[in-house]
Design a protein that fits this description.
The complex is a heterodimer of chains A (about 325) and B (about 525). Chain A is built from 14 helices and nine strands. Chain A has helices spanning about 1-20, 35-50, 60-70, 85-90, 100-105, 165-175, 180-190, 200-210, 220-230, 260-275, 275-285, 300, 315-320, 320-330, and strands at about 25-30, 50-55, 75-80, 120-130, 155, 215-220, 235, 245-255, 290. In chain A, strands 1, 2, 3, 4, 5, 6, 7, 8 and 9 form a nine-stranded mixed beta sheet that branches. The termini of chain A are far apart. In chain B, about 75% of the residues lie in helices and about 0% in strands. The longest helix of chain B has about 45 residues, at about 40-80. The radius of gyration of chain B is 24 Å and the shape is globular. Chain B starts with a helix and ends with a helix. The model of chain B is unreliable at about 265-275 (pLDDT under 50). The chains are: A alpha/beta (about 325), B mainly alpha (about 525). Chains A and B meet through helix 1, helix 2, strand 2, helix 3 and helix 8 of A and helix 2, helix 6, helix 11, helix 14 and helix 16 of B.
């Protein structure tokens, strides 16, 4: 028994240390998860012959890892979700400026950093969902209106610890200033029908169960639930169409400052912004392509067109800390 | 002459102890660098709006989980250890099954049950009650339930080991005097098993403090959640590390008090290898005992497993892609378990040479503090160590080493406690006789210590193996390319809200966790 254990351990140690080290042409650190990025990387390798190796984790630890690895880092490209994280990566000095006509042509200015250190690759709209049984679309208008007393005991929200809500509130601060935003968010909290939820799915499930009538979610979560249950009595509403537009955020990426394969990394980023990749990248997760020339998936198109907020998403990063503190002050957990 | 040699030996052991403790706690010490900067804004905000409430919530959760795991763990160990009833020998092993499940998976299962769309929600709709809402509003309840089910096996295992090696004579004397089972439990067994129970409870406390996954499932904001929030939300890693150090300082006095108590308690420990048992209870009581313990098992282990099975049905075709991942999980866990075992062996040796040396004992206790830190924060310390020493050990960068160091730093307390308990079982007289007969240290170890400690060595290996296989944040942050483990897969799917897909690796993890326990059962059967 003991001998067997020792033997299998030896084999394990051998396997772990003797695994052949192969160098990929581009190495990506990504907080966009494997099943959403692998198909598009495979396509890239087929098209260009450049191999892609990747590693996934949450955003902050990845940024920390790149920073710790310094000049020795294996990372060439950093991919993440939410502009706040890209802004933070840039402010930590781990990203390099990219000069690329292709990227500047494909990605609209409000979806990339003002100094071209990162570019958005897909758009994620954070919008209002409502119960088709208990709410008429005409009752709804704006995010701000959800602070109205008529929604008392009818609103469900995800936790303020999720970056999507932090970005939404950051953008509201950019538009309205802190004082007005604080009053709006404070009234959201007063209108809550139930304690905050750990994710967007749970918000919609609570609407289905009748716990609340309206909520705020990213559209791709709605897409996934709708795919599982097409008769789900929940629908999307596009708010703020007569004012600033729907809050959009991005998933995107930038080239790591100490990358040793910057040309290949740039090629990958440019390729990701092009027609073929944009389709796969966005469709894999019911998101909208960042390149306006590319059409979204049929299911996504069916939700209708909307006017999006065109304030540069970089603002979400700049104001994220203010947003977090504001939400803490009003008791939005 | 002898005194000089003793002094030299003492100094050598002291130096070794200091070096060992320093090496173990290096990743934690690295976090002290964070005090180079001080963000007054973050601290003002924390103190005004977050810290007091988070501390109170943490205190409530720790108190409830400690009480509940103590009651559940001690009583089940008492029943298993002292009574004969149907299914006892099987339940004895099966009651440790929840150890195969990560706490966050149990949390996820509990959430599915109490959700507005789950069984509790459906009951609410049928009966017109609002139980689900109440449980979400009082989210410390489901959080405490999940952690209790995940952690009680530690208290159970340590108490049971202690009961099964208990001296029978005081219990028999009490019985002759007409004491009943309750009195014997309260007056004799509890005081004698105190050190073991406290070892289990210390693990429970540290794990509860460091937990993030389970409490986040219920949006219950503890001190550990605050650490993550400051880092991820306010982008302020320095303040997050400072908060983590604060947590270490909170737990230090408790570790000290327990160390002092243990020193006192060991002096009174006496060993007798015949298991004590009460007279056979009545037929009804025997079946009641069996039913009670089986239901604990069904709730703590059965409910999560069934929930996972239901969630994962549609996603089993993805199994093929997970096969290499299983290999990485087992390799990673086995290496960490061996590393922790080596560290624990050194610790046991140093401890055995430090009987009356308070400073050394304290140093050794502090060597284990890595367990009380949230994994990601500990991983930051490990990365700092690796970065700072990369010019000395360039071959370590980007390998599995960083992860193993972090995991050993975090989990060695478990193997150290198991080995020390085993060491205490070795009768001193035997070791002394061997030495007088001229046996060298290796021969003494092989012939005297190894036979007594074999079970404890296996338990130490298995427990760290299980913990490492389940561990998420350190593995995530330090793993080399292409070395994803099952826990990493669970993270990847749950972070995108794909719970059904995450259920497949979670079930696989549970199955891997069951294997060592099956070995235990088979071995036991063979012995019987």
């Amino acid at each position: 028994m003991t001998r067997n254990i020792a033997l299998s351990l030896l084999v394990a140690i051998g396997a772990a240390t003797a695994a052949p080290i192969t160098f990929a042409d581009v190495t990506v650190y990504s907080s966009r998860q494997e099943h959403l990025i692998e198909p598009v990387f495979n396509d890239f390798t087929k098209a260009t012959g450049i191999k892609v190796k990747f590693l996934t984790d949450a955003e902050a630890p990845l940024i920390r890892r790149i920073k710790s690895e310094g000049k020795n880092t294996a990372a060439d490209l950093f991919l993440t979700v939410d502009a706040g994280n890209l802004w933070f990566a840039n402010s930590e000095g781990i990203l390099d400026q990219i000069k690329s006509e292709v990227l500047e042509k494909n990605i609209p200015p409000h979806l990339r950093s003002p100094d071209n250190t990162w570019f958005g690759l897909s758009i994620r709209a954070r919008t209002i969902v409502y119960s088709t049984k208990r709410v008429k679309p005409s009752d709804l208008s704006t995010y701000e209106d959800l602070a109205d007393k008529k929604w008392h005991g009818r609103l469900c929200l995800r936790t303020s610890k999720k970056v999507y809500n932090q970005s939404l509130v950051a953008m509201m601060i950019a538009e309205h200033g802190e004082k007005k935003t604080e009053s709006i968010v404070s009234n959201w909290v007063k209108n809550l029908a139930a304690p905050v939820f750990p994710n967007d799915n749970k918000v919609m499930e609570a609407i289905v169960a009748g716990t609340c009538d309206v909520g705020i979610v990213n559209t791709y979560y709605f897409g996934r639930l709708q795919k599982q249950d097409p008769s789900m009595p929940v629908a999307i509403f596009w708010p703020n169409q007569n004012t600033t537009g729907v809050h959009v955020n991005i998933s995107g990426g930038g080239i790591v400052k100490h990358s040793k394969n910057k040309e290949e990394a740039k090629k990958l980023l440019e390729w990701l912004s092009g027609d073929a990749a944009q389709k796969v990248f966005a469709d894999a997760n019911f998101e909208y392509p960042a390149n306006p020339m590319v059409e979204p998936a049929a299911e996504v198109k069916a939700w209708g067109t909307f006017k999006q907020n065109v304030i540069n998403v970089n603002k979400a990063g700049e104001l994220q800390q203010d947003a977090v503190k504001l939400m803490d002050r009003v008791g939005y957990k | 002459m002898t005194r000089t040699r003793d002094n030299t030996l003492g100094r050598t052991v002291s130096t070794l102890t200091l070096l060992y403790a320093a090496a173990c706690i290096l990743p934690v010490l690295m976090l002290f660098w964070s005090w180079q900067s001080f963000n007054k804004d973050s601290w003002d905000h924390l103190l005004t709006y977050l810290l007091p409430a988070a501390t109170a919530r943490t205190a409530l959760l720790c108190t409830v989980v400690l009480l509940a795991t103590a009651i559940l763990g001690v009583s089940s160990a008492f029943f298993i250890g002292c009574f004969e009833f149907p299914g006892r020998s099987l339940l004895r092993v099966l009651l440790t099954l929840p150890l195969a499940l990560p706490n966050y998976v149990i949390g996820f299962a509990v959430l599915s049950v109490i959700d507005y769309t789950g069984p509790v929600g459906i009951f609410d709709q049928w009966a017109g009650t609002t139980v689900a809402l109440w449980l979400h509003q009082n989210n410390w309840v489901p959080a405490a339930i999940s952690l209790t089910f995940g952690l009680y096996p530690y208290v159970y295992l340590m108490t049971l080991a202690s009961i099964e090696t208990q001296n029978r004579s005081p219990i028999e004397a009490a019985m002759l005097d007409g004491a009943n089972a309750m009195q014997i439990l309260r007056k004799i067994i509890l005081p004698l098993t105190g050190p073991s129970v406290s070892a289990g409870l210390l693990l429970v406390l540290m794990e509860t403090l460091a937990d993030f996954g389970t409490v986040a499932t219920f949006s219950y904001d503890t001190y550990a959640v605050l650490i993550y929030k400051v880092w991820y939300g306010l982008f302020d890693l320095d303040t997050a590390a400072q908060l983590a150090i604060g947590m270490i300082f909170l737990i230090m006095p408790l570790v000290l008090i327990r160390a002092r108590w243990m020193q006192h308690a060991h002096a009174t420990l006496s060993v007798d290898y015949q298991t004590f048992q009460f007279e056979e209870p009545s037929r009804l009581r025997r079946w009641l005992l069996c039913a009670a313990l089986t239901s604990v098992l069904l709730i703590a282990f059965g409910v999560p497993i069934v929930t996972l099975a239901i969630q994962s049905i549609r996603y089993w075709p993805s199994l093929g892609t997970l096969i290499p991942v299983i290999g990485h999980t087992v390799t990673f866990a086995a290496l960490a378990a061996v590393g922790a075992l080596v560290s624990a062996a050194i610790q046991t040796f140093l401890r055995s040479r430090s009987n009356s040396r308070k400073t050394r004992i304290i140093l050794l206790e502090y060597a284990n503090l890595g367990y009380a830190l949230p994994g990601t924060i500990l991983a930051v310390g490990v990365l700092m160590v690796i970065t700072q020493t990369s010019h000395l050990f360039p071959f370590l960068t980007g390998t599995i080493a960083a992860g193993i160091i972090g995991l050993v730093c975090r989990f060695q307390i478990i193997s150290a406690q198991s080995l020390w308990a085993g060491f205490l079982r070795v009768p001193r007289s035997l070791a002394e006789t061997a030495r007088i007969d001229g046996a060298g240290p290796m021969a003494t170890f092989r012939c005297v210590y190894a036979p007594f400690m074999r079970a404890h060595i296996v338990v130490a290996f298995v427990l760290v193996f299980l913990e490492t296989a389940k561990e998420m944040p350190i593995t995530l942050m330090t793993r080399p390319f292409g070395q994803d483990t099952l826990a990493v897969k669970i993270f990847q799917f749950t972070s995108e809200g794909e719970y059904g897909m995450a259920a497949v690796p979670a079930l696989l993890l549970a199955i891997i966790g069951l294997l060592p326990q099956v070995v235990f059962i088979v071995r036991r059967r063979r012995h019987i």
